[in-house]
Amino acid sequence: MSGTSxxxxxxxxxxxxxxxxxxxxxxxxxxxxxxAVELIDRxxxxxxxxxxxxxxxxxxxxxxxxxxxxxxxxxLYSAQQLNxxxxxxxxxxxxxxxxxxDIDRGIGxxxxxxxxxxxxxxxxxxxxxxxxxxxxxxxxxxxxxxxRLRALPVISILAPDDGLLxxxxxxxxxxxxxxxxxxxxxxLIRHMDRSMECARSVVASVDTLALARQRKVTRAIAAExxxxxxxxxxx
Length: 235
Description:
By secondary structure, the chain is α/β, with parallel strands linked by helices. It is built from nine helices and seven strands, in the order ββαβαβαβαβαβαααα. The strands form two sheets. The protein has a five-stranded parallel β-sheet, sandwiched between helices. The chain has a two-stranded antiparallel ribbon with strand order 1-2. The longest helix has 18 residues. It starts with 17 loop residues before the first strand and ends in a 6-residue tail after the last helix. The N terminus is likely disordered.
């Protein structure tokens, strides 16, 4: 943390590595997501032809999946879109990789996903799946698919630690051209739910309140924003 400045609020300084994301912006790396970043960086030297990224909403699964898509020249589908056409695309000679996102939100055709997993294994192609939950927590009707999914390496993106959550809040406020004192950031991370989705909601709520009051961001505004999102957390 730097010293006091007469020109503006104190600035928080973070020792978090920034990962260039193939034109998709910078991805902050911490202990909570390091294993997932390592998976992306290791490709194509994967122990198996498939893997699953698991984590809560807005934790960075899609961001990393898009980084991998750019690296591997993969085709991307949402799980709900899966049909026989996806198999035809994946079988093309010039297609070596596929991303299937959000398998926890419903799979358009479970037979198709089972076929894609088999193709990856049998033809030396690669498949990356994303999900908010682990395979064992999914409701899969097709027994063979359930078995295939449970055999995949699962790399979990954990809830953000203090350093990552603080850095994300600062970046989100900066993206809105809002300067926030370090004490406000520290207050927010002590009282908010520890998730990227909550961080987005908190920043949006703080911005709305500050604009409505025509004031800079204060602890009172931060507390009011938290109370609006979760009355039990703001005290």
